[in-house]
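FAQ: What does a multi-protein file look like?

Like this. Sequence, then tokens, then the next protein.
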Amino acid sequence: MSTLLKNYGLKATPQRTVILREITEAGHINVENLYEKVKEKLPTTSLATIYKNVHSLVESNLLTELFIEGRKTMYEIDKGYHVHLICSKCGRVDDFFMGSEDLIEFFSTYIDNKITLVTANIYYICNNCIQ
């Protein structure tokens, strides 16, 4: 994690290292759940410290925000363009990597401006919830 932080021009503090490790393990996580996990490892860490670090990690483009209808903002390590598959019943979030370049090229024919970001959430009911 230290190398990753340094690659983004950020100091590798113990808090940032644990925050990134927990986000990596969770895949997608909101600040409150992240705070609980970090507190287990660094008990003196405050919620304000989590917010401050998450904000700086987002500003540096190391983390991206995930907005899911009806839920708190979640965060993930930037993985490039991908689609989120979200179960409408249990809330499970999976990443689906697809040819985003194809999407950008397709929509660029309809949009004169350069596309700067592609995000997509697909809501469905996962196999665990169907059974």
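And here is the next protein:
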Amino acid sequence: MNYKTGGSGTVTTTNQNSTKQDILRHILKEGETTAQQLASVLEISPQATRRHLKELGAEGLVYHKAVQQGMGRPQYLYQLSEKGRDRLPHDYGEFAVSFLHTLAETAGEEQVQAVLQKQWQRKATDYREKIGTGSLEERIARLVELRQAEGYMAEYHRLEKDSQGIQQQFLLFEHNCAIASVAESYPSVCGHELEMFSAILPDCTVERTHWLYRDEHRCGYLIQLEN
């Protein structure tokens, strides 16, 4: 990764901000990381990495904990704060939560749950039409692209193949939640997400493996073709 410098040889403010965004994204994806690992992944010097981390810490966007490994100096593991998560791009706001609160006050909680269920059903239909047909991996890859376009930091990984060499198992990860503010007030939407993925991939079983709502650093789903 290359970074342009200004005439004086110092990195421009724009590039500094871009590097900080890269650092926040990487920590979000990994959950926690060291300065050495960041320097290697981002291809910048350890000194520059530590400077960026110090500045991010001063802004309250990251924090670290010391881990002792044998004799010698402790190793520092860096994690994102809630403020750091909010600094990354997302596609949600307070309006949705305010609207649901108003709906609950005027029509009752049952109506809110009915609206949320209708929403995931509509979303599942929309996803299924856009994903179309193809192998399971092709459909998951298209699903990941759609989720990324909506603000989710999504990716998938291959797991086992069957005896005929067909890829049957995948892990789908989402390292942030584009509807986190809604999920905090109405955690039932997390259950709807699982139902939605099952509806999108009707020939598969879908199980939750990780959950941001339970203080894990990502949401994860095991997707497996049914025999």
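Q: Is there any per-entry metadata?
A: Some entries carry free-text notes. For the entry above: Confidence is low (pLDDT under 50) at residues 1-13.
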